[in-house]
Amino acid sequence: xxxxxxxxxxxxxxxxxxxxxxxxxxxxxxxxADVSKIEHxxxxxxxxxxxxxxxxxxxxxxxxxxxxxxxxxxDILKALVPTLxxxxxxxxxxxxxxxxxxxxxxxxxxxxxxxxxxxxxxxxYGGFLVLDWVGVLVTNTIGMLVGGLLGQVLLMRWIGLVxxxxxxxxxxxxxxxxxxxxxxxxLFWFAMFPELRQYLRLRRDGELPDEREVAEFMxxxxxxxxxxxxxxxxxxxxxEESSSG
Length: 245
Known about the structure:
Layout: H1 3-17, H2 21-29, E1 38-41, E2 48-51, H3 56-63, H4 65-89, H5 95-108, H6 121-150, H7 153-172, H8 175-191, H9 193-204, H10 211-217, H11 221-228, H12 232-244
Antiparallel strand pairs: 1-2
Helix pairs in contact: 1-4, 1-5, 2-3, 3-4, 4-5, 4-6, 5-6, 5-8, 6-7, 6-8, 7-8, 10-11
């Protein structure tokens, strides 16, 4: 492996990853709006869920779902295009994995904005699509089905990330690719720590929002309303209600 090319791959990934489409779009569409903090009151509680993620979710809160979706797509492409170019240029070396990894780090800790960024979900998937787009489709389909059947929005949203770990190993047995998927997961979950800590505290205090509210917060309300109707939890509840009636 060439050290200069590896450095170029890492620097390219970090500097491009540091660019924030969320900030750019909010600056254009809503100058002066604060995209650095999300606050969401938990229904039926005095608790407020907070997030400092500067991301597609923050843009959705400021500008609506259409612009939030646009930022997510741009963040995916931000990671996908440079990673793909390095893979095409050096197909026999794992430089593209360095680019993909540094892309996540740049997105989460951008040098241009005081190292305050997002959580990296879209950039993770941008790299995963170059690594194995079939795996992305399969693992996310499984995640949606499992999460939908159990009525768990967080599983629907995140289980695909974790399932990429066994998928890549059994499909390729490539230590470099496995290391990248493990590192991508680690970077995402580490960045998510503030939100996960709040979630665990709310769970401990019995103040957790219901799944419908979680779905609305994540912009998955319409999806959840469809799958919730057919979840095992809902079907069991309906059966118990009919039996008791």
